[in-house]
Write a sequence for this structure.
């Protein structure tokens, strides 16, 4: 069981780094959602189901919706791709 | 999206699109002192004058990051181990909560008993902070639409009405009822199982957002508008404040409270925790949906 936690923590670190590194804001937002999801599973492992529910609902749900709307509003959906071209 | 809006605006006003775009006129060469700091910086970077400064910036940033990471790792390594019985957090407060929790609050979920009974004043503050945040967002983003914008919104609604994504609609048709029921379950069982007002309210808010995304603005407006939002939020917060004032008054003066505790483990038990959970859940659900709505179209 402990190995699953190690894998999750490593995945968490990779997610956190790649959120900063990716150019495309949409991609980094999706990675951020994955980060929240992994974090909620980790909360479940360290025996705080209250926080797990809240993290899954707020971190993976509401926050990413608000970020998506903001991205659409400021027309930055495809900025990274435009730079690469 | 913005270009689409422009086309529609020009269509409604009756002006051709070419007149809308006249950015070339505004272009003129500014003198050095007229530019802002960021403009000067971008100009410097474009010219390639600041290569040394940029290298120094990168080096300093990496050094700063390494120092901060080192500090954090050092601090974490000196924390007590997880789950150790001799941890400083494991003191007489925990014993008091675990020994007397059920008798005092009637809640099986100790966390709910703590945040809504022992420390309900904190939770009232948190709900108020959320309410103030929502009010601030309303002040910043809420504005009455002009007649032109209303026309544009109507046309957009007509265009998109029948073209809502089929997959989204059918998925929402299946998902929304279950999500709503799960949120209500989490709120109502806040004193029995993990969860409570905040998480359940967020789940209900997410369900409302999904419903709004799939079925459009008009069908949501039938049961949720700004008036409903105002009334629900203020009634819930006032009920919270008044009921907690009552229980603090009786508790501080050692008067017997008339609110029955009930049998621990039943759905209707644990005194005020269940209604307070419902209040917090309603406020949070409305606030989450209000945030989404204000971000999306600057109204509720």
């Amino acid at each position: 069981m402990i190995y699953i936690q190690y894998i999750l923590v490593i995945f968490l670190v990779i997610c956190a780094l790649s959120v900063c590194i990716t150019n495309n804001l949409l991609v980094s937002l999706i990675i951020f959602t994955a980060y929240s999801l992994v974090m909620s599973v980790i909360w479940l492992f360290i025996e705080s189901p209250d926080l797990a529910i809240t993290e899954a609902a707020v971190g993976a749900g509401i926050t990413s919706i608000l970020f998506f709307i903001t991205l659409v509003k400021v027309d930055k959906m495809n900025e990274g791709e435009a730079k690469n071209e | 999206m913005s270009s689409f809006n422009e086309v529609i605006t020009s269509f409604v006003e009756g002006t051709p699109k070419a007149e809308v775009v006249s950015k070339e006129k505004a272009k003129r060469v500014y003198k050095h002192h007229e530019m802002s700091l960021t403009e000067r910086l971008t100009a410097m970077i474009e010219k390639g004058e600041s290569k040394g400064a940029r290298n120094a910036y990168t080096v300093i940033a990496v050094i700063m990051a390494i120092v901060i990471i080192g500090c954090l790792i050092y601090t974490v390594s000196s924390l007590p181990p997880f789950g150790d019985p001799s941890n400083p957090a494991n003191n007489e407060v925990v014993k008091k909560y675990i020994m007397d929790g059920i008798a005092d609050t009637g809640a099986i979920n100790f966390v709910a008993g703590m945040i809504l009974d022992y420390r309900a004043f904190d939770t009232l503050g948190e709900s108020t902070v959320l309410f103030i945040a929502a009010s601030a967002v309303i002040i910043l983003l809420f504005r009455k639409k002009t007649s032109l914008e209303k026309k544009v919104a109507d046309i957009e609604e007509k265009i998109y009405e029948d073209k809502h994504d089929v997959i989204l609609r059918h998925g929402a048709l299946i998902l929304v009822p279950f999500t709503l029921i799960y949120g209500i379950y989490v709120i109502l069982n806040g004193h029995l199982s993990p969860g409570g007002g905040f998480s359940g309210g967020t789940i209900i808010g997410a369900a409302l957002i999904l419903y709004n995304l799939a079925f459009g603005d008009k069908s949501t407006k039938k049961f949720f508008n700004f008036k409903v939002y105002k009334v629900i939020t203020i009634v819930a917060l006032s009920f919270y404040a008044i009921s907690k004032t009552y229980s603090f008054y009786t508790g501080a003066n050692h008067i017997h409270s008339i609110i029955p505790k009930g049998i621990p483990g039943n759905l209707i038990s644990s005194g005020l925790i269940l209604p307070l959970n419902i209040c917090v859940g309603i406020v949070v659900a409305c606030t989450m949906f209000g945030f989404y709505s204000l971000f999306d179209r600057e109204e509720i």
